[in-house]
Specification:
about 280 residues, alpha+beta, Phosphatase 2c, domain 1, nine-stranded antiparallel sheet, six-stranded antiparallel sheet, 7 helices, about 30% helix
Length: about 280
């Protein structure tokens, strides 16, 4: 695990090792985890980051590099570190977080394009300011907000052919996870036609859990299975449960269950409940 010396952000991924952080950032409890695919002996192409933006705000981001090593790893880390540097400047100038994120994503897109080796990356961001959360989506990594009773309060759109098919009702979630085209993605950061899907504000309720994850989780674990594991109990236990299930699936051979070995990155964030 590496720590940014700029604004004390934490950045995980990009190495051969498993990284994990449990702590308190931006007014909430956080667990962040990243590990390389069990099928490869190469570096993790994911990059996950938790970025404070003042005492009661945090930016949660997961980037999944595309194009193969080293381009994928370089793309995800270039995007995340560019966003971190941009937020440092914006924080000093007290720029509104929404404006800072949009400008930072545009800067990250230009930085990845300047790498000029075909590199690209997904980029999923959820910001938390006090009790207000908002998602910014590029690609097929995903963000969720889960209520205490397992209610799915937010799910970012999956920008892929199978994701669009699920949204239109042509495929169900399980069919999409087994589909031959599930690896195709329709939108990347690092391209001239990159587009940002901006979500509406969500007011967090007591014990709501925010999850941002790469497809190492989302291609191996059904959303309902995630909801069941994070809706109650300590956030560290919830993280342990979803990570363990994803890793078992990656190593599994059961035909009826999804199994796609891949880099795995997960961030869980929960505001402490104060009655």
């Amino acid at each position: 695990m590496s720590n940014s010396q700029v604004i004390d952000s934490l950045v995980l991924g990009g190495s051969l090792q498993e990284d994990r952080f449990d702590g308190f950032v931006g007014g909430g409890d956080v667990v962040a985890f990243s590990c390389p695919s069990p099928e490869r002996s190469t570096e993790n192409e994911d990059c996950a980051a938790v970025i404070p933006y003042g005492p009661q705000a945090a930016v949660l981001v997961v980037a999944d590099g595309a194009g193969g090593l080293p381009a994928g790893r370089l793309a995800s880390h270039t995007a995340v570190t560019t966003l971190i540097k941009h937020l440092e400047v914006a924080g000093e100038e007290t720029i509104m977080l929404r404006t800072a994120i949009l400008d930072g994503i545009e800067a990250a897109n230009a930085a990845v394009q300047n790498v000029a080796n075909g590199a690209a990356t997904t980029f999923t961001v959820i910001t938390v300011e006090g009790l207000i959360a908002r998602a910014y989506q590029i690609g097929d990594s995903e963000g969720l907000i889960v209520g205490q009773r397992g209610l799915l309060r937010l799910q970012t759109p999956v920008q892929s052919p199978t994701g669009f098919a699920v949204e239109a009702g042509f495929l169900n979630e399980r069919e999409a996870l087994h589909h031959q085209d599930r690896h195709l993605v329709s939108n990347f950061l690092g391209t001239s036609d990159m587009r940002i899907d901006i979500g509406a504000e969500v007011k967090l309720q007591p014990r709501d859990t925010i999850i941002v994850a790469s497809d190492g989780l989302m291609d191996n674990v059904l959303v309902g299975e995630i909801l069941e594991r994070v809706r109650k109990g300590p956030i560290s236990n919830a993280a342990d449960a979803v990570i363990a299930l994803a890793r078992r699936r990656m190593n599994g051979t059961a035909v009826e269950q999804p199994s796609k070995p891949d880099d795995l990155s997960v961030i869980l964030f929960r505001k402490p409940f104060r009655p």
